[in-house]
Design a protein that fits this description.
ten-stranded mixed beta sheet, 15 strands, binds iron/sulfur cluster, TIM Barrel, about 475 residues
């Protein structure tokens, strides 16, 4: 190897082993400056570990189930599926997300129902997102079969996996109507066989083709199913879901689908039910994504039936470990190869050498919470995250956004609170035509109606179907 080649090689190793790429570092710093000061707290993830979560919009607005409520505007079902439109729009939205938010961020391939795309178009969309530096997750109602999943995962030319890993979020709850094989869902437990089947398909995919997966469970919460949350968690926590996300229903989207008095549900009450289902104390104060009025997240897991938390928010030693973790690890991508991860972690440790010393006692405390060595050896601990994401009502988002667009701070306390939440939003959607990201609340409450009217003209149902 010549001296020149050696230099190039060393430079490449130095760049690849940085904890985070420079573009992400810049994006994280910018994000930290952008979010309101009130949420720049020591537990804040935004701007330190992640720049946010992203979602696509207007790329396949249709859905073949009916939910009450549904966050999509009434015209979304008048837009036909068009694979070329989908891939083109996904590409342009994700390119902008990459420019603004930096590489390696989680992005949801969301519509509409993603499996109305044929497996080829779905695969092309995922690959497009990966090419734009995103970590894609397909958002689905889960009403599809193994044949579809296999076609999505495998290259039709070679029959070999085209993805080594897939992330899916399955939306299952009794507010959804039209699922195959079940005309009327009377209670949440009626859906358990469908939840199980969803997880089983991915297990089969791994056994037969070696394609691993990350599965999330989404559930809209209404006064009609709030008390069934503990039962859903208990019945489903061993099925294979690694994340349970609960969305309190909000008055947003199609008014014809608003059926209950959603405002009567309080977030604290929903969180109590989630905790009841987990069967142990959740610690949402340890890590915060964006504004606490929007999100609660509890990292932890189960060893058998025993729930454990990753960080104990009341234990000052854990709080210090969390702080050291955030300042050392930064935006490191934990999904890179093992060898590269070790190199990145070593360099991260140099940023905060005290993290290494604190990690040993922390791991001892964590293993005690998991039930001790014997229990850990007998029953492998599994990480499970609980999330509550509370979208806002369109009635408050619209005036909040209109005022923000004029650079005004509302004098109405409720609208001002919405403005603060929008400024600290962790779930954004890219608008390449304007060169900016907008909060998903704004997308669904303000922009979707007009966007879908325009799409219905561009892609009328009467046109040639193209889902591949
Ligand atoms: S989408 Fe809405 S509810 Fe969610 S984080 Fe953003 S502002 Fe908050």
């Amino acid at each position: 190897m010549t001296l020149g080649n050696l230099r190039i090689r060393l430079r490449s190793i130095e760049q690849r082993s940085r904890p985070e790429p420079p573009e992400l570092k810049t994006a994280l710093e910018r994000r930290w400056r952008e979010i309101p000061e009130a949420i720049r707290t020591p537990n804040q993830f935004l701007g330190r570990r992640v720049t946010g979560c992203e979602g696509t919009h207007g790329v396949f607005p249709r859905c073949n189930l009916a939910c009450t409520p549904c966050y999509h505007s009434k015209d979304s079902n008048r837009v036909r599926i068009d694979a070329e439109h989908t891939v083109r729009e996904v590409d342009s939205q994700m390119q902008l997300a990459n420019e603004i938010r930096g590489p390696g961020q989680a992005a949801q391939l969301i519509g509409g129902e993603v499996t109305l795309l044929g497996p080829e178009a779905h695969a092309r969309s995922l690959q497009t997102m990966i090419n734009q530096g995103r970590k894609p997750m397909s958002m689905t109602h889960g009403d599809f079969n193994y044949e579809y999943l296999e076609k999505l995962a495998l290259d039709p030319a070679t029959g070999k996996p085209r993805f080594s890993h897939l992330s899916f979020a399955g939306h299952f709850d009794m507010t959804m109507h039209g699922r195959k094989g079940i005309r009327k869902v009377k209670k949440e437990s009626d859906l358990n066989p469908y939840r199980k089947n969803f997880c089983e398909m991915f297990k089969t995919l791994e056994i037969e083709h070696g394609v691993t997966s990350f599965l999330a469970h989404n559930m809209t919460v209404t006064p009609g199913n709030i008390d069934q949350i503990p039962g859903v968690i208990r019945a489903c926590r061993s099925m294979g879901f690694r994340l349970f996300s609960f969305q309190p229903a909000a008055f947003v989207g199609s008014e014809a689908r608003w059926k209950e008095k959603y405002g009567e549900m309080k977030d604290d009450l929903i969180w109590e039910r989630i905790q009841e289902g987990a069967g142990g104390q959740l610690h949402p104060g340890a890590i915060q994504w964006g504004d606490p009025r929007c999100n609660r997240t509890a990292y932890g897991g189960f060893t058998g039936e025993r729930y454990w938390t990753l960080f104990d928010e009341k234990d000052q030693r854990d709080v210090r470990m969390r702080d050291l973790f955030l300042s050392s690890v930064g935006g490191i991508d934990f999904t890179v190869s093992r060898r590269l991860l070790v190199a990145k972690l070593l360099r991260a440790a140099l940023r905060e050498p005290r993290a290494l010393a604190a990690a040993v006692p922390f791991l001892l405390r964590l293993s005690a919470r998991m039930g001790g060595l014997v229990r850990i050896l007998r029953s492998r601990p599994v990480a499970v995250t609980f999330v509550m994401h509370s979208f806002m009502d369109a009635a408050v988002v619209r005036p909040a956004w209109e005022a923000m667009e004029k650079g005004q701070v509302s004098e109405d306390s409720e609208v001002r609170a919405a403005q603060e939440r929008l400024q600290g939003c962790m779930y954004g959607m890219a608008h390449p035509e304007e060169g900016r990201m907008v909060p998903a609340c704004v997308q669904h409450s303000v922009l979707d109606p007009e966007e879908n009217v325009a799409l219905a003209r561009l892609l009328p149902l009467a046109g040639p179907a193209s889902d591949a």
